[in-house]
Amino acid sequence: MQPLRAEDPQVIGAYRLLGRLGAGGMGLVYLGRSAGGRTVAVKVVHPHFALDEQFRARFRREVAAARRVAGDARPDGRQWTAPVLDADPDAAVPWVATGYVAGPSLTEAVLETGAQPEPTVRALGAGLAEALAAVHALGLVHRDIKPSNVLLSLDGPRLIDFGIARASDATAALTETGVSVGSPGYMAPEQILGAEVTAAADVFSYGAVLAYAATGEPPFPGDNSAGLLYRVVHEPPVLGPALTGELRLLIESCLAKSPADRPTPSDLARRLAPAEGARGLVRSGWLPAPLLERVTRRAVELLDLEADGFSPTPTPTLPGLEGARDPARPAFEDTARSAVQGAGVSPVSGRDGAGEKKTRRSRVLVLTGITALAATAAAFALLPGNGNGSAKPATSPTARAATSSVPKEFLGTWTGDVHQSDGTPNGTVTAAVSGGGTGAYVVRTTYSALNVLECHSKAKLLSATATELTLEEVSDGTPALGCTGNTSKITFTLTGGDRLAYASEDAAGGRPTATLSRSGQ
Predict the structure, then answer these.
(1) Cα separation of 68 and 241, whole Å?
(2) Can you tell me the distance from the alpha carbon of 113 to that of 115, in angstroms, rounded to the nearest whole number?
(3) Could you tell me the residue ranges of all domains in the chain?
(4) Read out DSSP for 372-415?
(5) What is the greatest pairwise CA distance in the chain?
(6) Which among 76, 86, 144, 169 is annotated as catalytic?
(7) Cβ of 500: how many Cβ atoms within 10 Å?
């Protein structure tokens, strides 16, 4: 997200603008927030479109139709779209607000991490197919399915920009080069040739998007629009040797030149997720680890955006959208906010019940693992340690005292608040220290956040002095969700006053430190 510029508005409708999300042929997209705390994407069309009354009329109809995708479409389809919440086609510059999806576009994901693994592509394809089946059942055609219009969230993919491309199609039917409005390389052949555009055109674009996700390259390569469009119409797609099996056959069928030879979205959904549908594929964890970290961080960063004192004057809602403003928040917001409220902190204002200001940054860090946990996704580094053990001595300190290299002053259970190297709070740590010689596991540690996420580790003794233990910490059991699982050097140092200074070199865990006191004190 980029900061607002001097020429940007501060408020649009009932939404305070927080930054720029992007720009395109239709206009600018801002990140906004309502007075109730709902985060939205506000799309404002270019002024020259606002001068065309035909555009305004189609914009109004298409936004209302897009609202039906979320309200009237089958449940298995609407969950994979970003709902239209509010709009004003009669404003000096028309705008529309949709639910904000806290995740990168497929374009960003592929550019950063390359081709996606097959389970991710299958879940992506199943979700988008269900979305298209619902949209087409309403008599709508998207017309501009492309990687940048597919967003990746913790709980599945989202297809965005319904109606907007279609609204502009009536006003600007041709570009300067005489080509139909759309995205070269992802437009169907019939769309390029100016023939009738049906639901089958969306299926072709869908196939091109899946090919991009699976291979990391567009299926119709080229350096200019003219070359891309020629290849789409006349040449077979380039899918590469790595894409094989059923997934390749499915994509090839979608990229058939003739609309009649392409499968329907319902057929595609059944082929990709025959048992539980797309939701079943997503539930088992659909994002690879690098993307999961990026998506999770973006999701919880929303909670760090301050909205105190914002009370805009409400504006009339477009007919058909009454009651649409500020519906239930996305799943990641509900989960994160519930966890924060359980700790006594308001997720919007960052104040506790007594009204004292809290550090919003700490709220974000401890919730990172919670959000990933709610999405039942793959492991994401938050706290040091891992596994399913418990913070208890492996053996009795008394039984090991005779051969122990651990001074008796260290023995027992210690606990304290963890801070990362930048001072950010990051949960608590409980360490149980037992006797033992060099090379023995003498510490069992539990890291926790909000009593929901726990990471367990064990540490073997490397060296000991009268005031300091140096240990090597490893995962205690199978890696658990939200834990780094790294092998790291840690130290415990007696500081006087019956306190231990704890320090870890686990970079993924934020090189945490803590001042520990004996349990019960």
Answers:
(1) 41
(2) 7
(3) 54-78+102-288, 397-518
(4) HHHTT-S----BS--BS--SS-SS-HHHHGGG--S-GGG-EEEE
(5) 90
(6) 144
(7) 24
Summarised one tens digit per residue, pLDDT across range 395-428 is 444 434 446 799 999 999 998 888 877 676 777 8
Quick one: DSSP state of residue 227? H
Q: Which residue has the higher pLDDT, 474 or 364?
A: 474
Say which range, 4-8, 61-65, 459-463, has the weakest mean pLDDT: 61-65
For the record, the structure tokens of 285 come out as 């964890």
Quote the pLDDT of residue 11.
Answer: 94
**CA dist., res. 67 & res. 322, Å (int):** 11
Instruction: Report DSSP letters for 269-292, one per residue.
Output: HHHH-TTTHHHHHHHT--S-HHHH
Helices (H), 142-288: 164-171, 189-192, 199-215, 225-234, 245-254, 265-272, 277-283
Which of 48-52, 231-235, 303-307, 425-429 shows the lowest mean pLDDT across its residues? 303-307
Annotated binding-site residues for ATP read: 43
Contacts of 439 (CB under 8 A, 6+ apart): 460, 461
Contact predicate 91/44, CB 8 Å: no
H helices, E strands: number in the chain = 16, 16
Q: What's this model's pTM, rounded to 2 decimal places?
A: 0.59
CATH number, domain 397-518: 2.40.128
At the fourth CATH level, the homologous superfamily of domain 54-78+102-288 is: Transferase(Phosphotransferase) domain 1 (1.10.510.10)
Closest CA to 208 of 223, 218, 216: 218
| Residue 258: count of CB within 10 angstroms of its CB | 9
* CA 467 remoteness from chain centre: 45
Feature table: binding site:
43
- Residues whose CB is less than 8 angstroms from the CB of residue 520 and which lie 6 or more positions away in sequence, other chains included: none
391 touches 445 (CB < 8 A): yes
Mean pLDDT in residue range 323-336: 37
**144 has catalytic annotation:** yes
Tens of pLDDT, residue by residue over 193-235, are 999 899 999 999 999 999 999 999 999 998 888 888 999 999 9
Query: Residue 68, SS3?
Result: helix
